[in-house]
Amino acid sequence: MTIRVVLADDHDLFRSGFRAAVETQPDLECVADVGDGRSAVEAVTRLVPDVAVLDVRMPAMDGLEAAETLLAQGVRTRIILLTTYDDDTYLHRGLQAGVSGFCLKGMPTVELLAAIRVAARGDALIDPSVTRRLAQRFAAGLGSAHLGRRPPPPALSTLTAREHEVLLQVGRGLSNAEIATACFIGEQTVKTHVSHVLTKLALRDRVQAVVLVHELGLLDD
Fold this sequence. Notes:
6-stranded parallel beta sheet; 2 domains; alpha/beta; Rossmann fold; globular
């Protein structure tokens, strides 16, 4: 099954290069590439691709506002935001809006292509360095104005000790491989625990798990 993709970036060279990379993949198809947020909203609404890759910083309407607009409309398209190291102020809104991933714009093309496949499967991907910076902002008290505290959901008490530990590691921005090392368990076991955590807490994906950890202040102790 071919994954249909919309690309949005105001840098023509990057956009054309990334489109060319997408079109070399037998399982990916770029159905549109545009240079601003308003055009991205129009293209995604009209074409309903499987995945939209939106640069955060674009003219007319930035990628975050475009993502918020599309997700508020209830589109089934999974959205990946391309960010840079100085885009921390956008992370909170993106997480709350329900984007499916944050990828660093400078990451290797092969990893961006892999992120598209991850999002298309219904999973979420946040570059670990992005999540770690988010966690650091919360530790410094810089994120509370964006993601307020809330009472823990009753389902939190249904997690096993290991599942709770894995949830905290997800909130710290660790990858499955890093969690496996930290918890002295296999990577496949980590995947199983993450799946159980998402199911028990009725979370759509890993992104929502990160939001929950910080909303509850689980890393403050």
